[in-house]
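Service request form, structural biology core

Requester: graduate student, group of Dr. S.
Request type: structure prediction, single chain
Budget code: on file
Notes: please return the result as C-alpha cells.

Sequence provided:
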Amino acid sequence: MSDGPFRDAGPGRRKRARRTFHYFVKVLGPDAMQWDGFIVDISESGAQLELFDTQGIPEQFSLLIGGHGAVRRLCHVVWRSRDRLGVKFLRGPERVPTASIGRA
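Core staff response, request fulfilled:
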C-alpha cells in the first residue's frame, strides 16, 4: 500500500507522540457498514489507519480495535488519502463485550 503524503509527517507536526501499533481494526459506519484495516500508528489523541480504500467512510465513525477484549473509540477524520485515514479520538476507549464484536 502507498506511503502517501502523511506517512512521514514526523513528530514535529503532532501534538502527542505516536507509536507503531499494528492491530486490526473495523470501521463501523451507518447502516451496519464495516471496513477492515489496521492501525499504522497511534497516540492518546488519534491514529493513522490503513484500509484498502477510504471511499465511503463517513467523517465520524466508531472504530473497533483488537479482537478479544476489544475497545471502541469514537473518531473524527482529520485527513484522508486513497488508503489511509488520520483520525482524532473524540472520547476515551470503551470496552466492548466479546459477544458484540462484529455488530455495528
